[in-house]
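Consider this record:
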Amino acid sequence: MFEHPLEERAFQFAKRVRAFTRMIKRDVENIEDIKQLVRASGSVGANYIEANESLGRADLRMRIKISRKEAKEAIHFLGLLQTFEVPELENEREFLVNEAIQLKKIFSKMLNNLGE
């Protein structure tokens, strides 16, 4: 299904975010933050797929920058979600934050290698 292992990793991240958000209490704040988190988590992989089909070096860099930006945004919204100190949710949030940080670092390294 995926041409590159990082595409698969980003896809699994987005799927796991979606499973996580289904377990969170719906209140006014969480609803809005969940929407933003779901969008950002999906955009990480979608933009990396676009990068792999880039129209040139500038397009490649731009798409990777967007993937990195979306990973940062996912970290932000994961931090805002209220899990009401439910240990299982806190553990999953921590895992997802760490995964988003790792994806961000990978994209940063790619940009450094491309001569950002």
